[in-house]
Amino acid sequence: MCDMSTPSQLTALLQESLDLGILRLPIASAELESLPLIRERLVLAVPESFRYSHRNRLSTLRDAPFVLISRSASATFHNHALSVCRSAGFTPNVVQESGEAFTILNFVRAGLGVSLVQSAAARMNGTGCPLPRN
Questions:
Q1: Residue 125: what pLDDT?
Q2: Does the global pTM surpass 0.90?
């Protein structure tokens, strides 16, 4: 078992150097079969010092700096986060990107910005980064 990004897994699966992968859907390849294992929600990660209430709308963060998953790590997730912000009426001010959720949460904890992350990231919760629990 090894940790690989969705693009790396797709390449390895198509080259038949990997038999099975756990990827973020959708998969745009007729050569591969896929089925959903879990469904996750998108949640907001904010530093402790940030004034935000669950009653607020995402649109109140239009001027906040954002830290997002990089497009190279997960184009699907990156595009989804951008789409959610656009649906809320703004394009996020992305100040930093990373390929790892743990790194993104540490950037948030350090006060670099806010982020939209998968709900599973709540299990990585530590002091300084309040995330809603499932």
A1: 57
A2: no
